């Protein structure tokens, strides 16, 4: 049995011999906290759908199987492309500032928001700029690429079901918070690929978007979104969302360095234990859950005893400062990206 410690998020593996009954206690092997576990057995209601009979315990696998089997039929989200093109120009010796300006100008909505961001107090906009090229020069190409990535990513969080929009807004804010926090952690620990972990932070929960699309488009699921709670969604999709997200992004041609972060950010396997980018995003994800950026709020998490914080050599004071700074920065950036 796998039991995740709510304090340090370590995965404890228990043998059947370690489980003494429906209510028992054991010590987390990582943080040494005493954990109480209560095993609950729920009766299964059989739901008939046509000729098939399905049980709630199978539904998680059904959502994943539906996505794998209907990838080409589903109206799945289109990944950000503008930021990728900007990155290629930046990495090309013959690429110019004018090339980046032309690319950003090709999307009028993003161009307008880049102008607004360049004139904001967050980016030192003391003198108003009305020219896009001057705005990009003020921001710099790195920040411009980061902001374009965030703006494109927001477009993934939409739905024809009005009742889902508030939930999608929370999910988007969480992805933005993880990206911003990953960037700040990377700078603090002097990890050189800052843009890489920012993008990984934005896409780390991409699997949830796939699950939500499947539930909306799959006729056999018959989900009443007026009654479907956030807790039900996470219970249904949590176990599969990392694998689904990594699979889809890999199919789309994203590099293994990024898809591995998406695949393992919830539970880091031993073979990835020295992956700095993965530890950065995993820690950022926990920090955002701890302070309540997004749909989940888990204040009981102790970041300083997590494996990622220990790997990155971040102490309690540094983590507390990151909590305050990143929560504030995410709020300000989210408001400007609307």
UniProtKB/TrEMBL annotation:
Residues 76-268 form the HDOD domain. This is HDOD domain-containing protein. It holds the Pfam family HDOD. The lineage of its organism: Bacteria, Pseudomonadati, Acidobacteriota, Holophagae, Acanthopleuribacterales. Transmembrane segments: none annotated. It comes from Sulfidibacter corallicola. SUPFAM superfamilies: HD-domain/PDEase-like (SSF109604).
